[in-house]
Amino acid sequence: MLADYPLKYLALHWPNIRSMGWAAIRNATPITRPGTLPELPVHHSMHVPALNNELLDQYVAWTGAPANRYRTEMPAHFCSHWAMPMLAKLGSLAPYNLLSLLNQGLRMQIHKPLNRDEAIALRGSLMDVSDDGDKVRIHTRVQASNPKGELAMVIDSYSTVPRAKPAGKSKPAKREEHEFNTAGNWDAEEEDGLAFAMLTGDFNPIHTIKAVGKRTRFKSCILHGFGQLARTWEVLNNAGYSAADLDVRWIKPLPLPNPGMQVQTSTAKDSDGYTQLRLAAADGTLHMVGRFK
User: Fold this and answer.
1) What are the coiled-coil residue ranges (predicted)?
2) Disulfide: which of 56, 99, 175, 235 matches 263 by Cβ 3.0-4.6 Å?
3) CA distance to 73, 157, 188, 279, per residue, from 193 (Å)
């Protein structure tokens, strides 16, 4: 599998590697990380040049989408590549160790597609940082516009930094009960963590280095949350669904390999008009939950 992703892709990911690496190194120790939280919200702008079409084609193939689906447009979930430098820059403004940061959830609102061969203008905001005693919660937002200045996407990213000594367990949120059908399946293969990194530039060792994964309680690498989202999104597309507003939470890490992942959708919409979404392993364990419309 990895032979399909040449090392030349690393040069395309240099902005991601540099920004994410610098943020992690800078915030790793109290000496170099910011001492205080800036007044919020904080805003930054960034220009992303047109993305490499060969890389896009390889990414589309990895997600399980047919090649003609994205012949002129980019998958919305490829924000896992172009939004990462901005998210890293914003996250580094918080005075916490980003090496322990965990992605918790994501909301994507799609107003219009981003086209291939076009640059992307980003406006990023560190919206909120709160400490509930158990963990620090960080909310960042990225707005993407096309060269005409038209808003294409709004991405709200939610992450946490766990405390060394948790204050106590929080009560789980009360959920509506729904019946679910399986829209389709996909397989999480052993090398998917490294493959996703070669396609997006996110080389977090927990996803890519087996020796690191074996030292965790999962005894293996785990798949990126954005990788779970991309594969699930394309299963939904293949089943005839479309999403302009999607909100998901990652509730349990996904160890690799993990064949027979089930993409499940509710048989009825909720009170707000959303279809409920679940990603379940073959044994029924839920790894991602959310809703879309």
Assistant:
1) none
2) 235
3) 25, 20, 9, 17
